[in-house]
Design a protein that fits this description.
The chain is of the alpha+beta class and about 425 residues long. The chain is built from ten helices and eleven strands. It has a five-stranded mixed beta sheet with strand order 3-2-4-8-9. Strands 5, 6, 7 and 10 form a four-stranded antiparallel beta sheet that branches. A two-stranded antiparallel ribbon has the order 1-11.
């Protein structure tokens, strides 16, 4: 059987462009523009942490010392009065015994019978004075606040110095928690013995309590004029700790659990605050997890696409460590992707740059444009993507890109870019 020349050529073309679009996850860092940059620009900052716990602890200790002083004063006064009280009791007893001894034996017997009690005087007991015990107060935890501030309150894009600087202060309002409780849950479990299944009850134990650590943050300018203040409602919401369940009852000593929970939420809340401040006025080094697409073909028919992909990957990964190299590689990738797109034919499945590859390149271009803060060219790409019949996965990806570039556009406008 003979094949027509056109059919043979069609098969050869199809084989030559045998391809598949692959996706590779990539994580890189970039500098996010602030939503409310400080104007005029300030280069320096210094961060501090204060805590209401310090004032509360000082108040509790002052009350404790005052109560100890009162207890000591009471003791010394009672000790001073003690000899007189003892003498008064001795004198009273001596007089009563003198009267008692003056009575005849018959009188004593009659009184005892009539009163049904021994009428002989009893010496009054005078208690030895003692110092009243004053329990030490339970103080809130105090931390090395300068070290915490240096570790967790970092304003990206600024230099740490106290001259001509922003002041960045976080106030910790203290750790609050309910009393931990050991709770139980009874579950049905199944056992099999000699081929017979039986159900029995098992009691599981777990610890549960609620907690929170409210904080507020204030950023002020060089003249102490307030730039930003907020007490995040997210940090006032109560969280619930619930341990894993166990068939063994846990210890009722919760001190270590409370301490570790307090330390964990302290770090978590400081990180939350620092992101909040950086998002507003800092130039936050932000981690972005995304993906880049490339084309896998049998005969290097898409070597240019692969080269552009490699340049894009290098550019993104060096964005915050080697800006010159990053811009060079990203620019090369963008130029190559745009040249490749001149061959795009989204209606021909056998085209070298078919619909799938065109879509993949569009998304790669968008990632490059985002890294370069190029919103105008990105807008054209997003418009082109909107005209394609995208898969559900690609539609969701485009929606994310729409949101990403809208946010970038607003941040650029706020920064006069």
């Amino acid at each position: 059987m003979k094949l027509s020349l056109s059919l043979i050529l069609t098969c050869l073309v199809g084989m030559s462009f045998a391809q598949s679009v692959k996706s590779e996850d990539i994580t890189y860092t970039y500098v996010k523009l602030p939503t409310n940059p400080v104007q005029p620009k300030v280069d320096n900052y210094y961060s501090t942490i204060t805590s209401s716990a310090e004032a509360e602890n000082a108040k509790l200790m002052a009350e404790y010392e005052a109560e100890k002083a009162r207890a000591e004063a009471d003791y010394q006064r009672e000790m001073a009065d003690y000899p007189a009280k003892v003498k008064a009791a001795d004198d009273k007893y001596a007089k009563e015994m003198e009267v008692y001894n003056a009575k005849s034996t018959a009188t004593k017997v009659i009184e005892k019978q009539l009163l049904n009690e021994n009428t002989k005087p009893v010496h009054d007991y005078v208690a030895q004075p003692y110092r009243r015990t004053v329990s030490q107060p339970t103080l809130k935890t105090s931390y090395d606040y300068p070290s915490l501030a240096a570790t967790y309150l970092v304003l990206d894009g600024f230099t740490k110095a106290q001259v001509n600087a922003l002041s960045y202060t976080v106030n910790i309002q203290g750790f609050e928690h309910s009393q931990p409780q050991i709770k139980t849950e009874v579950k049905d479990e199944v056992s099999v013995k000699d081929g017979v299944r039986s159900t029995y009850k098992v009691t599981y134990y777990y610890i549960e309590f609620t907690y929170k650590m409210p904080m507020s943050v204030r950023v002020a300018g060089m003249n102490n004029q307030e730039i930003f203040y907020v007490a995040p409602v997210e940090l006032t919401n109560t969280k619930t700790y619930k341990s894993s369940q166990s068939k063994t009852a846990p210890s009722s000593d919760f001190s270590f659990l409370i301490k570790s929970t307090e330390e964990a939420i302290l770090k978590e809340n400081l990180k939350f605050i620092n992101h909040l401040v950086n998002d507003r006025i800092g130039y936050e080094i932000t981690t972005r997890a995304t993906s880049l697409d490339y084309v896998k073909s049998k005969n290097d028919a898409h070597a240019d696409v692969m080269e552009a992909y490699n340049n894009a990957t290098i550019g993104l990964k060096t964005l915050t460590t080697n800006e010159t190299l990053a811009k060079q590689k990203l620019t090369a990738a963008i130029v190559a992707f745009k040249v490749i797109l001149t061959e795009s034919d989204v209606y021909d499945k056998k085209a070298r740059i078919d619909k799938d590859i065109t879509t993949a390149i569009y998304f790669d271009l968008l990632e490059c444009y985002f890294a370069m803060r190029n919103t105008s060219d990105a807008e054209a790409i997003l418009k082109s993507l909107g005209q394609l019949d995208l898969s559900n996965r690609d539609k969701k990806q485009k929606e994310k890109m729409d949101e990403l570039f809208l946010d970038l556009t607003l941040r650029k406008a706020a920064n006069g870019l």
